[in-house]
Amino acid sequence: xxxxxxxxxxxxxxxxxxxxxxxxxxxxxxxxxxxxxxxxxxxxxxxxxxxxxxxxxxxxxxxxxxxxxxxxxxxxxxxxxxxxxxxxxxxxxxxxx
Length: 97
Known about the structure:
Helices cover 77% and strands 0% of the residues. By secondary structure, it is mostly helical.
């Protein structure tokens, strides 16, 4: 084998790799474009009664969690206010108002 043959084979293998990577990219793009989108409501077409009950309970739990966070912020605000306004003996009565 001569040096020219070595250079030729190295160049052809790099061209093959480039061509192969281009083919892979084109195939991935074709897969992405061939995915059919479905409407949001069709996601629930396979849900049975158990799934619907669990989704309902999860929604109620999420609403309850959000309400509790608001309640904690209000209570914590009252506690912080009572530290600045009252003596330590009156803190419990000020927070309980």
